[in-house]
Predict the 3D structure of the following.
Amino acid sequence: MAALTAEDRGLIQALKAFDVNLLWHPALSLETGVEALDILNDVLDGRHTLDALCIEGSVLRGPTGSGRFQMMPGSDQSMAAWICQLAPLARYVVAVGTCAAFGGIPMADGNVTDACGLQYEGDVQGGLLGRDFESITGLPVVNIAGCAPHPDWITETLGLLATDGLDKDQLDTFARPLFFANHLAHHGCSRNEYYEFKASAQRFSHLGCLMENLGCKATQAAGDCNLRSWNGSVGSCPDAGFPCIACTSPGFESPNDTFQETAKRAGIPIGLPVDMPKAWFIALAALSKSATPERVKTNAVSDHVIVPPARSGEKT
Amino acid sequence: MSRRIIGPFNRVEGDLEITLETTNDKIDSAHVTAPMFRGFEHILQGRPMMDALSINPRICGICSVSQSVATATALRDALGLSATLNGQLGTNLVHATENLADHLTHFYLFFMPDFTRDVYADKPWFDASTTRFAAKTGAGAKAVLAARARLLHITGILAGKWPHTLAIQPGGLTQSPDDGACMRIKSVLADTRDFLQDHLFGQPLEQISSMKDRQALDKAIDVALSAGADFGRFGQIARDLDLESQGLGYANFMSFGAYQFDQGPAFSAGRVVNGKPLALNSNEFTEDVANSWYAGEALHPAQGQTIVNADRQGAYSWSKAPRVAGNPVEVGAVARQVVAGHPLVMDLVGAGGANVFSRIIARMVESARIVVLMEDWMQNLEPLAPICSDTPIDPDQCGTGVGLVEAARGSLGHWLNLENGRIQSYQIVAPTTWNFSPRDGVGLPGAVEYALQGTVLVDDDKAAAMVQHVVRSFDPCMACTVH
């Protein structure tokens, strides 16, 4: 559903630019019931080629391995069984969203549905298709992670695949396309000045950085959310004042403590920015806190700007 | 008697299968199967209470904000908080944005494409319908996707992103819009008004929202037809196929009240049973599981349980069967507008009940009303007023909370029980759980099962077009149903 807002022109126009034709889409295609099953059966019988099999949602293997928690409507087979039959026939297999990639929210707290991703179960390779699975072109399952993924990650990945423009070396260790996984969600954050000075929001609606108190994991999470932004390039999670919950990461569904608070040990956040030695972080944080301008300190705990930046040539 | 299974039933959100029993091509009975179980109520159990705000939107990719609003409402109730006025305005703006986007998605992408089926090839309206509504290629589909993406900028501006925002909190929103943001929202609303007036209605929104009776409706359809607008195309098709005679539902409607403010909702709460208005009494609710793959018996959602029993004798769905005082009800735009007393929708339902035609008209009327409401709310949003309550939240809160809201598809209820700040139990009854429920313990069919009875299938129509129209007139969201 996220994909329907793609590139601000809608999915159809966005895919047309890349010459991608949807063989069958559950929300958009006319074909329903028998007509839809006919298309899938034609693929199984070799009458249709399948360039890309795109799966949304976790694979539900329960109860007791039967797959009855998600049956393919109109057939007496589980969705898992259909995926296992279709995947080897596809040039590319694509997991759209963190559920299909790693298992996602349904895997949380006891995993009652025995959910997994197509090729991962959390951060462990395997999942439904197994760690050694490769589609016809030799690629593992391509993981467009995110809950929901940015719509343009979906259309751009499909566009790359349509021109055979995505190789193994353009995927990260969790098989996420590098064009978005090479960034941290923090990059381009509009609250960056508050981050630099460790001027933190105390509660929701404050303008300050969300990392110290309100659970923001953008300095650890893959994604270019703040570089390209969402919904017409106007928004993102931290920009709107709520934390990045690292929804592109395996295991995001089970945070250390809670989603909306930063887990800390001895007052120090457990999850520090990736690549940053802890001692340095603490030292720099202390230094920048001591250097925080009054303006930044005041605005960080307000819901709108109280102290404007001083203008050059103006008296403050 | 013969039996026919339709699935995967697409152009709905989530997984759906329908089994029909027919005699001489007339449907004697329909059984609706939700073939998926997702386990959200289990996932929530034991979690810190505020985690529900992150988890619940992810129940659904299309009514994610509705799940957010219901969660925030239930937590607010349990915590004894109130939201700031600006927070209420902002929340309702984000919620109305999603609901309007859903109505547009339903009309253009889910419902109308069935009128481009080969079975209608000899109809005078077929070519125009195909040009406009053909799945994936129709000019209307392209236009609406662009308009919908533009409309959802409001969610980007106020709530960061769509779907799955965490901006909606019990005390209001996490971000205060400044003057620039307010102007951008007004600009998006102006474009949305243009799309609806130019493409959908071919006339001012006020013409549509103020229709009083059948005569006004007929006139508006004619105006739309001569303007080449899609509302007119639908009206023409509906007259030709007599969609008003199809998919007659129960005369038992319910609404939890849409777009709530401290002083009350913009569309009122209540029930209308056989034309008679009744007060809403949620104590009368039960969720029956006699024909669902769960163990146990019918319980009020506050005491509800979700215990899987995949081998339950006679069960045929993962949906439970919610009832009000033992009766199935219909929810959605038609129910909401009847309960809210919209004259035209009351007139249509009074004459012919809820049917394929009146369900669509109610959505159209509501779409026009939503834009007018949003424009009004924007006049009241004050950029410098507090957007979120600063009342501290007790991290060890105990007690119960209820969140009753209206999603695009109808009444959505959350019932939670907190113990020391953790969720002890959480039960969700979604709109499509009401509409697409299986039979209950006394054998009463759910709303769409009832509405399908008597529908006549046409020979050689593989897709059973009229079944498609009836089912889609409800705009089901199966993903929410089987949370």
